[in-house]
């Protein structure tokens, strides 16, 4: 077994982390994969696929919140906006805001959260800071089983 | 150089195609990565990450339309709905509909298309067909340079 930096079984290997893997597989548009063409364009360099940055958000959301939450599923996104390009080496800061919380009408054992997230590209020597992604979405979460009847409910 | 099935340089290798790679990297929720837990749940088996199916849509959209179109960028998604789970081995049929087309007010060299796509999970021995994903989004496309002034515009 190959161990990760914290001693757990490694889940990511060199091949998973090399630049460009995602775009070549899922989004091979020239400004995501063709360095020369991208450098000669108004973008100035290769930019990240919008679904790659969305997937990075998913990972941060899973690690930061879902891993500790009684998370059920998500019906989807209300809106996803790519508002500024993301470049190799950029650092992204994520902010998550709870816009609303309501019990589910269809499923009494869960509640629906409406969440808004931004991914902000930090300033670098070459470019100013900018909000790169805005996402609004809903997530279902199990309700705390304080009611014995609810506690007996199988959520999934 | 390793060649692909059609003789081009290969872009996908064994490691890129093995099941579970996407979810372990981007969406390690138990119903995406833990086979035993997923089989014991109402899902009945591991289901695909919603961002994985969205990324598969992106690839099909790039191969099927963007590769032949004067495609500029996309401002984002109006809506993304995960309406049924997708299982390993499922075949997905994609349908793309043009809901609207309008010249861009901000950028006269491009037009904005509003598009709606569905990804339908085909029926298998185990499960009936179901619409798995619905996406509504906008894309910018360069206008045909019939006007000499438009033709001189650098689109990117």
Which SSEs are present, and which pair or pack?
The structure is a homodimer of 156-residue chains.
Chain A: H1 14-17, H2 21-26, H3 30-33, H4 35-39, H5 50-66, E1 76-82, E2 92-103, E3 110-121, E4 130-142, H6 148-151
Antiparallel strand pairs in A: 1-4, 2-3, 3-4
Question: What does the model show?
Answer:
The structure is a homodimer of 156-residue chains. The radius of gyration of chain A is 19 Å and the shape is globular. The first copy, chain A, is of the alpha+beta class and 156 residues long. In chain A, strand 2 (92-103) and strand 3 (110-121) form a beta hairpin. Chain A has a domain at 70-151: Thiol Ester Dehydrase, Chain A, CATH 3.10.129. The longest helix of chain A is centred in the middle third of the chain and has 17 residues, at 50-66. The first copy, chain A, starts with 13 loop residues before the first helix and ends in a 5-residue tail after the last helix. Chain A has helices at residues 14-17, 21-26, 30-33, 35-39, 50-66, 148-151, and strands at residues 76-82, 92-103, 110-121, 130-142. Chain A is 26% helix and 28% strand. Chain A has a four-stranded antiparallel sheet with strand order 1-4-3-2. The first copy, chain A, is built from six helices and four strands; from the N terminus they run H-H-H-H-H-E-E-E-E-H. The A-B interface holds A 11-13, 15-16, 21-22, 24-29, 31, 41-43, 49-51, 54-56, 58-59, 62, 66, 71, 73-83, 134, 154, 156 and B 11-13, 15-16, 21-22, 24-29, 31, 41-43, 49-51, 54-56, 58-59, 62, 66, 71, 73-83, 134, 154, 156. Strand 1 (76-82) of chain A pairs antiparallel with strand 1 (76-82) of chain B, so a sheet runs across the interface.
């Amino acid at each position: 077994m190959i161990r990760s930096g914290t001693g757990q079984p490694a889940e990511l290997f060199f091949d998973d982390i090399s630049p460009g893997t995602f775009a070549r597989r899922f989004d091979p548009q020239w400004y995501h994969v063709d360095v020369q063409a991208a450098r000669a364009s108004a973008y100035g360099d290769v930019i990240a696929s919008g679904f790659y940055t969305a997937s990075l958000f998913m990972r941060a959301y899973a690690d930061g919140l879902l891993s500790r939450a009684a998370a059920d599923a998500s019906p989807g996104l209300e809106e996803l906006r790519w508002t500024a390009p993301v470049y190799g080496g950029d650092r992204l800061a994520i902010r998550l805001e709870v816009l609303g919380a309501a019990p589910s009408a269809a499923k009494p054992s869960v509640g629906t959260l409406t969440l808004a997230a931004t991914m902000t590209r930090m300033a670098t020597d070459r470019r100013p800071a900018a909000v790169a992604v805005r996402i609004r979405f809903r997530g279902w979460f199990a309700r705390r089983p304080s009611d014995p009847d609810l506690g007996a409910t199988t959520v999934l």
